[in-house]
Amino acid sequence: MPIIDPTKVPLKTGSIYPEPYASMMKGRSSLRLGEAGGLTQYGVNLVMLEPGAMSSLRHWHHNEDEFVWVVEGECTLVQDEGETVMRPGDSAAFPAGNPNGHHFLNRTDKVAKFLVVGTKAPTETAVYSDVDMMVHMTPGLSGKAHFTHKDGSDWTGPR
Predict the structure, then answer these.
(1) How many whole angstroms separate alpha carbon 151 and alpha carbon 72?
(2) Which residues of 50-59 are buried (b: 16+ CB within 10 A; e: fewer)?
(3) 72-111: pLDDT as tens digits
(4) Where are the beta strands (DSSP E) in the chain?
(5) Are 146 and 135 in contact (CB under 8 A)?
(6) Separation between Cα atoms, residue 137 and residue 147, nearest integer Å
(7) Can you tell me the distance from the alpha carbon of 42 to that of 2, in angstroms, rounded to the nearest whole number?
(8) Maximum Cα–Cα distance for the chain, whole Å?
(9) Parallel/antiparallel/unpaired status of strands 11-13 and 28-32
(10) d(CA 109, CA 128)
(11) Would the pTM of this model clear 0.85, i.e. be above it?
């Protein structure tokens, strides 16, 4: 069984989002542990949020399940029903196709860390709940993100 040394996994920072949203992800970083271990059917990422950082825009997936488990610190899950503080050992599941947008905020003065496990569907669309944007991932785009407005038109910036 291959052991993954997290100190040798490249730290991913930044975002695939177009501006102005990419800048909003400052303080978020991750280790792509599943990728480092050669996994192809699902992703396993350790996400780190600095104080004041957010994990993503609030979103939901058409085809991919997500599971989150808090391993260090405290973060706030924000979803349609409101906010829930999560601490080490707490977990949450987000089934594909459920249009309840979610993301995590670190409102503390310490780093928060959580593990995200998610399927890697061949094609995927994620919808951003609070902004007029969606992202599409398809094999024809070589895994590259294609952003659109919710009406399907190409992304031209916030409107």
Answers:
(1) 39
(2) eeebbbbbbb
(3) 999 999 999 999 999 999 999 999 999 999 999 999 999 9
(4) 11-13, 28-32, 42-49, 59-61, 66-72, 75-79, 82-86, 91-94, 102-105, 112-119, 124-128, 133-137, 145-148
(5) yes
(6) 9
(7) 17
(8) 50
(9) antiparallel
(10) 27
(11) yes
The tokens for 111 are 């780093």
Distance CA 89, CA 98 (A): 24
Mean pLDDT for the stretch of residues 100-127: 96
| Band of residue 138 on the pLDDT scale cut at 50, 70, 90 | confident
What is the pLDDT averaged over residues 12-29? 95
Specify the length of the chain in residues: 159
Q: 86-97, pLDDT tens digit by residue?
A: 999 999 999 999
The DSSP H or E segment spanning 36 is: helix 33-36
The token pair at 134 is 């969606």
Provide the token pair at 128. 């951003």
